[in-house]
Automatic annotation (TrEMBL):
UniProt enzyme class: transferase
Species per Swiss-Prot/TrEMBL record: Maribacter flavus
Protein name (record): Aspartokinase
Species classification: Bacteria, Pseudomonadati, Bacteroidota, Flavobacteriia, Flavobacteriales
Residue ranges occupied by any Aspartate/glutamate/uridylate kinase domain in the UniProt entry: 2-276
Alphabetical list of InterPro entries matching this protein: AceGlu_kinase-like_sf (IPR036393), ACT-like_dom_sf (IPR045865), Asp/Glu/Uridylate_kinase (IPR001048), Asp_kin_monofn (IPR005260), Asp_kinase (IPR001341), AsparK_Bifunc_asparK/hSer_DH (IPR042199)
Length: 415
């Protein structure tokens, strides 16, 4: 069995959905499970609904109207029969969103976020499943929340592998299945999410539990490139990458592969293919066992909107284990993701991602116990397999605030 994952860009409009059909007809869809993300920028639109719910409820109708209009446009382009069942099914999902916003009593932002944002995937898979049926491709729509069970750490949940494995065993491998990325459910059957870009991870979870032959992530790029083309002018396709190398790249922030995706695949040695949905016959990139990296060229990774903090003790005493453990506890409490650490005898520097917006409260806590200097809106660049030319290309024209260098990897924090 194969698992295919289609992201938001691959289903952003009616023509993109038709292209998914083209991909399936080109590469085959027997014994295949499709994992599909929300269409286009729907997750962002759903986040606007959540923000309106907490900040200005009068804006909710217009935010939901934008979502309805966008998806209705896609549905109208895909279905000539305006009495098709998809219109009713879509309305039911929108009614569920409105209903939740009325009856919900929880003030927990992360809980509300997961209950609302997850509808992007439920809507996209409902539309695509109906369209596949329309063009003669029989398929089985699955609610992934019935299969992937998690704890209740909303927005960044942890998978209960034992329960998930038991549930996934019920999936019929002999038919084309379609389900949602990004989502799971907790013990109370409330929706949970696996973190932004978590659909790749969903594909890996299901592949692991199904003992799949392979996972293919369909992207709008030829495969895994040595740099993000949004930020670097010249990029090169990586033909083969080992699991270990891919995990390193993902850890440092390579955007093509979700950091959690590779671990379950590696455990069962399930190959991962990253291919172009525009050119499905092209080989793309294969991630597998013992492949190293080919070609071996410098790989550039950038994380924007980072925060660099330098902490030192108020009395110039050493920054030792007690201080550092206290700092990391605060990072954990405020959900601050640490991307780079560097320490000396009396100072401790750290580059972090303020993903959940807890920075100001964190700084207030830190400044009560340490001397703190911080820089916001900095960029963290990582070069794997760096050479002098690659390093010079980054340093040139940038103010380097911090540099850390190892045998294979160099990291720079720059303004």
């Amino acid at each position: 069995m194969r698992v295919f994952k289609f992201g938001g860009a691959s289903v952003k409009d009616a023509e993109a959905v038709k292209n998914v059909v083209n991909v399936l007809q080109t590469v085959g869809y027997e014994n295949t499970l499709l994992v599909v993300s929300a269409m286009g920028k729907t997750t962002n639109a759903m986040e606007e609904v959540v923000n309106a719910y907490f900040k200005n409820k009068k804006d909710i109708p217009s935010k939901i109207s934008n979502i309805v209009e966008y998806h209705n446009g896609i549905i109208n382009d895909l279905f000539e029969n305006k009495q098709h069942k998809i219109y009713k099914d879509f309305k039911v999902l929108i009614d569920e969103i409105n209903g939740f916003l009325v009856w919900n009593k929880s003030p927990n932002y992360n809980f509300v976020y997961d209950q609302i944002v997850g509808y992007g995937e439920l809507i996209s898979t409902t539309i695509i499943s109906a369209y596949l049926e329309k063009v003669g491709i029989a398929n089985n729509w699955l609610d992934v929340r019935n299969y992937i069970k998690t704890d209740n750490s909303y927005r960044d949940t942890t998978v209960n592998w034992e329960r998930t494995q038991a549930n996934v065993a019920d999936i019929d491998k002999k038919v084309l299945n379609i389900t949602q990325g990004f989502l799971g459910s907790d013990d109370n059957n409330f929706t949970t999410t696996l973190g932004r870009e978590g659909s790749d991870y969903t594909a890996a979870i299901l592949a692991y539990c199904l003992n799949a032959d392979s996972v293919t992530i369909w992207k709008d790029v030829p495969g895994v490139l040595n740099a993000d083309p949004r930020y670097f002018k010249e990029t090169q396709l990586l033909n083969n990458i080992s699991y270990r190398e891919a995990i390193e790249l993902a850890f440092y922030g390579a955007s093509v592969i979700h950091p959690k995706t590779l671990q379950p695949l590696q455990r069962k040695e399930i190959p991962l293919h990253v291919k172009s949905f525009l050119n499905p016959k092209d080989p793309g990139t294969t991630v597998g066992k013992g492949m190293g990296i080919e070609p071996k060229v410098p790989c550039f990774i950038v994380k924007k909107n980072q925060v660099l903090m330098k902490l030192s003790s108020l009395d110039f005493s050493f920054m030792v284990e007690n201080n550092i453990s206290e700092i990391f506890k605060l990072f954990h409490d405020f959900k601050i993701k640490v991307d780079l650490i560097q320490n000396s005898a009396i100072s401790f520097s750290v580059c972090v991602d303020n993903k959940f917006g807890g920075l100001q409260d964190l700084l207030q806590q830190l400044k009560s116990k340490f001397k703190v200097v911080h820089h916001e809106d900095v960029s963290l660049y990582t070069i794997r397999h760096f050479n002098a030319q690659a390093l010079e290309s980054l340093v040139n024209g940038h103010e380097v605030l911090l540099e850390q260098r190892g045998k294979e990897t160099v990291q720079l924090v720059v303004k």
